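Folded chain entry
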Amino acid sequence: MKNTFNFIRQSRAAFIQLIDGLSLEELNHISEGFNNNIIWNFGHIIVSTQTLCYVRTGIRQSADFVQYLAAYQKGSKPSYTVTQEEVDNLKKLALSTIAEIEADYDKGVFATIQPYDTATYGAVLHSFEEVVLTTTGHDNLHLGYAIAQRRAIKK
C-alpha cells in the first residue's frame, strides 16, 4: 500500500502543477462541451476520496467532516467563482487528506469495512485496498478531464 499512497501523492502533485500553471480565471472557466471546470475536478477528487474511504466504508456515519463537500460532491457542478484562498486550501487538502488516510490505514482503522457498490465503475469493493485502488483510478480520470479542459482553454 505504501507504493499506492506514493502514486496518489505523485498524481496529485501533477494535478497541483497543472493548477499552478493556470490563472484563477482559467481554473474557473467552463469550456464549451464541459459541465464543470478544472478547479471543480480538483476539488471533486479531494472530497470523493474522503467520502469513499470513510463514509461509504462505514468507518464514519456522516460526511460532515469533509470540507467543501457541497461544492464538489458527485452530482454537483460549479456554482460560484472559486477564490485564490480556496484554491490554496484545496492544494493543501489534496495532500494532507491522503496523509491522514494513510496514517489511519497504518493504525488499522480500515481493517474491517462495509463493502459497497460503486456507481461509477459498477464494482463491489470488499476491502480497503480495493477502495484505494479505485480512488486512484478516479483521481486520474479527473486529472485527464482537467488536462483536456486546459487544452480547450489554451487553444
Notes: The beta strands are 116-117, 124-125. Residues 128-153 form the longest helix (26 residues).
